[in-house]
Specification:
Blueprint: H1 4-8, H2 20-33, H3 45-53, H4 65-80
Length: 84
């Protein structure tokens, strides 16, 4: 037997989904709470070549943005100190 509250507020099958903007904001707030900042930087070709010479980036990955980012993380950790 159903009661009046079930008729007025039927249970939903799926939880509410977040919009892409709400999800970006959630991730932004999460990073800020962890003390992280998200920035965009420009990198010179010669800086990429330096990452390769220092063994931080394989030469065949010179155009892979993910690999360049990872090499920069290693460089920053080595020069500024490891992150917590």
């Amino acid at each position: 037997m159903t009661n009046d509250s079930e008729l007025r507020n039927p249970p939903t099958a799926a939880p509410a989904t977040r919009s892409p903007a709400a999800e970006r904001m959630r991730r932004h707030r999460e990073r800020r709470q962890m003390g992280l900042r998200c920035i965009t930087i420009q990198v010179w070709d010669r800086e990429i070549e330096t990452l390769i010479r220092r063994g931080l980036l394989p030469a065949k990955m010179r155009n892979d943005l993910h690999e360049i980012r990872e090499a920069l993380y290693v460089h920053l950790d080595r020069t500024l100190g490891a992150t917590p």
